[in-house]
Amino acid sequence: xxxxxVEKKGGIMYVKINRPDVLNACDGDTYNAIxxxxxxxENDPTLRVGIVSGSGRAFCVGTDxxxxxxxxxxxxxxxxxxxxxxxxxxxxxxxxxxCNGGGLEQxxxxxxxxxxxxxxxxxxxVRLGWIPGGYGTQRLPRVVPLGSAxxxxxxxxxxxxxxxxxxxxxxxxxxxxxxxxxxxxxxAGEILKSAPLAVQKMKAVVMQGLDMPLPQAVRLEKEYFDxxxxxxxxxxxxxxxxxxxxxxxxxx
Length: 252
Fold this sequence. Notes:
- The protein is of the alpha/beta class.
- 46% of the residues lie in helices and 17% in strands.
- It contains 11 helices and 10 strands.
């Protein structure tokens, strides 16, 4: 059985973690397969957006604790999280059921998060004597208020979908798994209407700007703005708007 199922359709890459017997806990092969998928998303010009989900009763409960004790586990986070840190294309996470530990870190590394009402989230590494190894200590306080992040990190506790929405961890909460994927595809479809180069530069300037002083960040915005204004797509976008038609993006 494939540990990660990858499908491509209409400019969207679908990545499904497929270890339902262990609630999609990730071993090294699983982490590497997800990293391979995001590498392909980044390098394939026909792909514009990624959607990641989990099979069975959960999104992902994190790293497979039984596997992580083995000698093969050394350096298991060396590929996936650095790759996600540098992606220029948006990822949407579809969460149902458990989203814990390394599963939460993958969700936090995405751009947009949608969950079902039965979802719950936690960072339980501290209960194992660990700290998060997939940038959870850095991403969580950048997504939710600091106090909320620290409470989750210090206690290893969990929150439900309602609380996750309240603190801004997720963008949308839906009732069923069918609605979950439909909402993710709806968002992906709206992104696909936007100019591909503009989306990539938008993501870059926002993410890089978070770690810059404001004067430096606005200079970066101006640099990317000027670059985009010299592209064919910027001219096509203005022309399509004037002609009241859908633009024909070329990513040039």
